[in-house]
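note to self — DONT lose this again. spent like an hour looking for the file last time. sequence + predicted structure for the chain T wanted, 310 res
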Amino acid sequence: MKAAVLTEYGVPRFADHEDPTGAEGIELLRVEAATINAVDIAIASGGHYLSPRTLPVIAGIEGGGVTADGRRVYFSLPRAPFGSMAEFAPVPVGNLIDIPDTLDFGTAATLGNAGLAGSMPLVEGAHLKAGESVVILGGTGVVGRIAVQAACLLGAGSITVVGRDRQALEATLELGATGVVAAGSPEDDLTAAIRDASGGVDVILDYTWGTVALAALRAGNRGVRSIQIGDRAGADITIPAQLMRALGATVAGFMPIHHGPQAVADAYRRVSDWAAEGKLRIEYEEVPLSDVEKAWSRASSVRHKLVLAP
């Protein structure tokens, strides 16, 4: 079969690969769509804790496909050395989630890694209550734009997006954001801007870390909860102990797997139902699997998901 094959760390290439075979507890899927995620690029680089130790392998952690008996499913983590970026994928049956009949495969695939990272931190992480103010740090990309819409659907009182691209920030207002703040100011100025835009912060979705995260915490109301998801603005910060005590603040690291497979499945069904009902706008570009190398080089510079179609 044809696949995106990684023969050395870096960029996978469109090539022939042996077909997967069946096994107990494994479903052989015909792949219809496979996303390119930041984690896929990190894994392929060889420096991620999930990076393969032996090559070749097929790239890709998730996608949308069809089972032998015709089920339309979202799938994740195919059995190594196979990945999602191929014509067929062997996937543990526990890693399959049925998708609504009206949902296209590109949307279904995008709602996996990105949809979970955009919605689960609000529900399973922060336990957002209706009327609370949400600040989304680094909220102009695929995940952040889903988070804006999820916060709106969950009844947030205000939704403030912090980012560096002014045009991308303004675009989030069309999705439900109530205010935007341009990052890059000194920390005190950024704190004041976040406080003014949000009215005081109850929940922080933090895709950046770094000094931006500290500025947002300083703008927090009592009991502010910061959910730490990414570290694009820096891996280390120092949070004053007095700030934590004065606000009764909490900072919690987040990954979907920490909440268990049932919570992940429930969260996926929640966002896929929203999308099927037209409540969630998902932006992706379909690219032929044969163009995987070009797509790989573009993935980190676009604000929509690139989806490979075998």
